Amino acid sequence: MSSSEVADGRVIEIEYTLTNPQGEVLDASEGEPLAYLHGADNIVPGLENALVGKSVGDKLDVVVPPAEGYGERQGPGPQGIPRTSFPADADIVPGMSFAVETEDGQLMPLWVVGLEADQVMVDANHPLAGVALHFAVEIVGIRDARAEELEHGHPHGPGGHHH
Ligand code: ZN
Q1: How remote is the CA of residue 141 from the centroid of ligand 1, in Å?
Q2: Which residue, of 8, 33, 69, 85, is most buried by count of CB atoms within 10 Å of its CB?
Q3: Alpha-carbon span 154 to 9, nearest angstrom
Q4: 4 CA to middle of ligand 1, Å?
């Protein structure tokens, strides 16, 4: 395989615009490319699979169904948690997420979907669960990952992790 193609163990830089089926822009790189480690579950599977074998300069329009994106919506829907369960000085706004520990000790993310008088409404579904994702992508960089990046499972430097 050519070293200039998207493949496992390479750091891929992409410019992207993510829109929902209504055409609303949900996220965009806007000149600051996203770097991800291919094959390490850094991005949703439907997009990762569509990029395999592509080269720098390639542009793609990819529609990712929920099952290959953030999943289908599940569970009973939003639940209320007393505001008093949160630290008094916590700045709680819709869209934020936090982790709770389940009875079997797993960390589960919850997203704040609304605020009521004395309740915080939370949902275990990712905000984009159940949504078909339309990505307009351009590949702007491909390089082999460094050993440390493979070990961490993510790229370092511009567009990646800083630590
Ligand atoms: Zn790292």
Answers
A1: 19
A2: 69
A3: 10
A4: 23
Contact partners, residue 142, CB within 8 Å, separation at least 6:
3, 4, 5, 6, 10, 11, 12, 13, 55, 56
Q: Which two tokens stand for residue 94?
A: 């819709």
Work out the pLDDT band at 2, boundaries 50, 70, 90: low
Model confidence, pTM: 0.82
Share of the chain above pLDDT 70, in %: 98
The alpha carbon of residue 59 and the mean position of all alpha carbons in its chain are separated, in whole angstroms, by: 20
Query: Scanning the structure block, which residue is given the tokens 């569509």?
Result: 50
Task: Give the HSE-up count for residue 73: Cα atoms under 13 Å, Cβ half-sphere.
Answer: 10
Evaluate whether 97 touches 109 at the Cβ level (below 8 Å).
yes
156 CA distance to ligand 1 middle (Å): 6
Q: How far is the CA of 20 from the centre of ligand 1 (A)?
A: 31
User: By the 8 A CB rule, do 130 and 42 touch?
Assistant: no
Domains of the chain: 10-70+129-152 (3.10.50.40), 79-123 (2.40.10.330)
Q: In the chain, which residue ranges form alpha helices assigned H by DSSP?
A: 45-51, 147-152
